[in-house]
Amino acid sequence: MAKAKPLIIVESPAKTRTLKNFLGGEFDIQASMGHVRDLPKSEMGIDIEHGFQPRYVVPRDRAKVVKALREAAGRASEVYLASDPDREGEAIAWHVAELLGVPDARRIEFNAITRDAVLEAFKHPRTIDHDRVNAQQARRVLDRLVGYRLSPLLWKKLGKRTLSAGRVQSVALRLICDREREIQAFIPVEYWTITATLTPHGQKHPFDARLAQIDGKKAEIGTGELAEGIVRELDGAEYRVAKVETKERVRNAPAPFITSTLQQEAARKLGFTASRTMRVAQDLYEGVELPGEGSVGLITYLRTDSTRVAPEAVEEARAYIRDNYGPQYLPAAPRTHRKSKAAQDAHEAIRPTRVHREPDSLKAHLSDEHYKLYRLIWQRFVASQMNPAVYDVETVDISAGRFTFRATGSTQRFDGFRRVYSEGQDDTPAEPADEDRPPLPQMAEGDVLDLLKLLPEQHFTEPPPRYTEATLVRALEEHGIGRPSTYAGIISTLKEKDYVRLEKKRFHPTALGFAVSDRLVEHFPGIMDVKFTAGVEAGLDEIEKGRTEWTRLVSDFYGPFEEALKRADAEMERVKLEPERTDLKCPNCGGDVVVRDGRFGKFLACSRYPECKTIIKERKETGVSCPACGEGQLLEKKSRRGKVFYGCDRYPSCEFVLWDRPVGESCPDCGSPLVEKVTKSRGREIRCSNRDCGYSRPAEGQEGEDAPEVTALAS
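Given the sequence above, the corresponding structure tokens read:
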């Protein structure tokens, strides 16, 4: 009879492969494929009358997984639950233990999937943290209550059965709508600047100086007439250096990444969406196949709000910096970074598991997106332990009669961390930072300057910019709305529901988004209040710390919510949403062409329906970017024989085609697009579109914000 082995249960096959790579055959390692139990999809599944108790079920596509885990647990000497080290992972561990009937199962957690980290975790097994489980359960119940009660109300009042509302999602939508209203209400104010192009007398070293003061006061030029008068007065003036001041400017290295800053920087520098960033980072964390090493975890855990770094990782980084860049780049003591007041500090910052695993050494073995994100994480971490960059910033005041011009230039004395890394920017600034300006020619007080050109320029004050993915993530974090691990799902839902659209990488609320947000703000001011939503997040933290009962938080939330629901059902007016208009004209009657909703998605039709029944062009969007050209969107189309396929909307410029529905992810094994496939034998699963690859996994239900199935009746 074979000797019983300890059983380790993780979430994914990728984690399983990585653990088997260095634990060998001493353990039986199985994957739960994510959550093994969840609330039912066909009903709310919460007993409100009896303390909001959830009724969990095993999804049909998880039945075989649960059966296999039970069999493995039955023959195991002991059971270790090694799901992710966060609330979601703790809840998965609890559900697995409950289903398998192993209450004495040992919980282990590790921040990186490396041999040292995993073996260290085995030295410190613990029981399941029920406070952490309860915090996750409270979030799940709150999201289900809001989604299942609020979404049908929107269907009923707005006449559109694909609408959804969510405790966090709807507040994020409000931020975008409020910003758009600020922009619409903004009244531009005209102002002028005057720039002088000068050079030291007798030299050819031109530089620009901006008019800063008039008669010793800040220059404020409101009209073109005033600007022209100043230019005429300056035309014959003598330009002389009045003051030269040089100051040292130090720019410190940024902290290593946390979840939110990784999402922001990947959006700025790589153009990644938040969901793409999290997917690629998950692959890097769980393990990537490397020649001669097998599956290797390349980064630490990706869901964290802490900039803390393990001492041994700091020392490894410092040794690498000293050996590769020189001692002048190494601070006298390890650098520490300030943490946010709201940080839970449960995990390390996101960093490479080994600094000596340089990005370029892995490039040939990683897909393009995996390489780019790993390089970003590696560079940021190494830079975080380097000396600051140092600049001499020179400011020169130039007198011209009663006018004073000012020029600023910078000379880099030491590049410091910028040898490795420079932060991205959300928007191109109107004026560069002082330390990013070019150096000025050498000048001294009293020097005479020659005027080469005077340039008056008209400007207008600008409204606040629309949110990008990066700035929306930052706003959600600053307001305490949701958790960074949920941001990707929130943003994806807003786009999928057609509440917002991305134009030139900026969020624009649609008419539908405005309609939903306005009605929720009017009738549910509590739920839609930013501070209230942040307070709920703080309450979840208190549950995790064991300071309050989860049912109390849910009960305190549900009472006012139920009252608001009753009032809204009685008072919210029914509205017929107008179809979205386009710039097109109907080729048959000349009427406007509008975007309508059909059974299979959006299509273009004449606005004079039913008098004119012209359909211009059916457009069934998938919401997935074309993986071939990166510019187009994949549309659902039909071949001449009626077979459905998915092609790029830039055809014939791009001829990319898939024969199964794309899911917007890349295969972790080969990088090809993943598609959804439904078969009688295996049900719904995610497969690699590359037939030579063979990668597949069960399709998971959507997590996070809840809404009932569209087939349910709206009461």
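The chain is about 35% helix and 25% strand. Try to locate this feature in the token string yourself.
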